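Entry for the shared binder. Reason: the reviewer on the internal report wants the predicted structure included alongside the sequence.
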Amino acid sequence: MKFAILALLSFGSVALASPATGEAGKTLDLDGVSAIVISGEASSVRITTLASAPYQATIGSRRHGWFSRWYSSWFANDCSLVSDMKLEASTLRIYVSPSSWMDPSDCRVDINANIKPESSVSINQAALQARMAGNFSTIAITSKAADISLDGHASIVELKGDALKANLAFGSVRHDENIAITGKALDATLAFGQGVAISYSVTAAASFVDSSLPNTVGVKPLVAINGDFVRATIR
């Protein structure tokens, strides 16, 4: 439990990095891509579905930690290039490699992607900060410690982890939404709009639930929250 609380607190203070730039940055065109799959070690992720911007993905990195001042601020010791980003048919796959155990400074990987609306996102990482804005078909995230936000819509949201902080703001409701959040220590805020009919359940050893929306059994959005220690706010 101590690890979970510390992880949630630490993620709350992390700011998103600017998109990676420079000669060593990696950029891929995402025309024709409808799925993003990210795995490996920790990263900071921002994914949008803007029709007004190019569909592309960039990956970059920067040093942080006690010895980061001794390195160049971007791609020192080539830390980003050990991570892999490639296209497989209509899927973008990104694998984030860990920093060397002999390296005195950590390498933080920043992933930025703009993909077509109604695409799917799947992430399985040790630690994660993810910011998603737009309309998605499926969002599935598994992480030991994660800070996750959605501003838009997804028909399926599945979040799993030991320590999770989730802020899901639905800009529209299509009555096809299935949302499942599972973990040990959870802090979840969900917003659907005033007067929207939803059904929800919260199963926990200890919980605090603040909902301004009544539980209407059998309707969608359907929300299921399961954890040891849960704080949930539903609006």
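Summary line for the report: Residues 1-24, 65-78, 101-105 have pLDDT under 50 and may be disordered.
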